[in-house]
Design brief:
This is Putative MetA-pathway of phenol degradation. Keywords: Signal. InterPro entries: FApF. By secondary structure, the chain is mostly beta strands. It has a single domain, classed as monomeric porin ompg (Porin). Helices cover about 10% and strands about 55% of the residues. The chain is built from three helices and 14 strands. Strands 1, 2, 3, 4, 5, 6, 7, 8, 9, 10, 11, 12, 13 and 14 form a 14-stranded antiparallel β-sheet that branches. Strand 9 and strand 10 form a beta hairpin. The longest helix has 20 residues. It is globular, with a radius of gyration of 18 Å. The N and C termini lie far apart (about 45 Å). The relative contact order is 0.20.
Length: about 250
Amino acid sequence: MATGCIRLVRLGMCAGFVLALLTRAAVAGPPYVSDDPEPTDYKHFEIYTFNNGTTTRDGTTGESGIDFNYGAAPDLQLTATLPAGFDLPAGGGTNVGLSNIELAAKYRFLHQDGFGLDVSVFPRIFLPSGSNSVGDNRASLLLPIWVQKDWSGGWSAFGGGGCTVSEFRAVDFCQAGAVLTYQILPKLQIGAELFHQTADSNGTPATTSVGIGWRYDLNDNYHLLGYVRRGIENTNETDQYSWYASVLFTF
């Protein structure tokens, strides 16, 4: 755990360095692993229908589901994620079931117009999946902090991280990430991400990955999001490749 925390601090310093170097408000968060500090607009909804997955030498695991976000108050977003999980072991067989339901609340307590950065906390509770083959059958809590900076010309950077803790988990773990996005066309945004996570269980190594993402706005209410990622540390064990795809409805 000590080694993992040192790595987390180093990556956090790197993310901070990227944010410091890079000098139109951007929509962030999904499709990336790292989140952003911008809550859903007050009295508005963001609903993602998504599919994601990761392939390692042991097989492929992933989820499909719906991610509900509601702007419950200025600077406050309430979130509920309802996923169905799947597990395709390399040796054959398929496991499908309800994965970990997520409940979260994002609160932005600092703003760019006054502080220079948007800063939010976004605690997230993962409920037990109730399955030994899909998801995690133990409850856990992610405690992260996220920051963002936007510039004229279509550039934006966001990132941060936190740790996941559980009374019943043998190993708590931490994660950190940084994303740089660019509004290349009026309806198309692209971005790149560096992400790191410490070992999340005994015998499972830490992982570092790089990914690219995009968002295409069909109109004000319908949006297409995609993301692909590959591990650059312990690749075969943790992340030979990953993906995320979703249709976002905003209203």
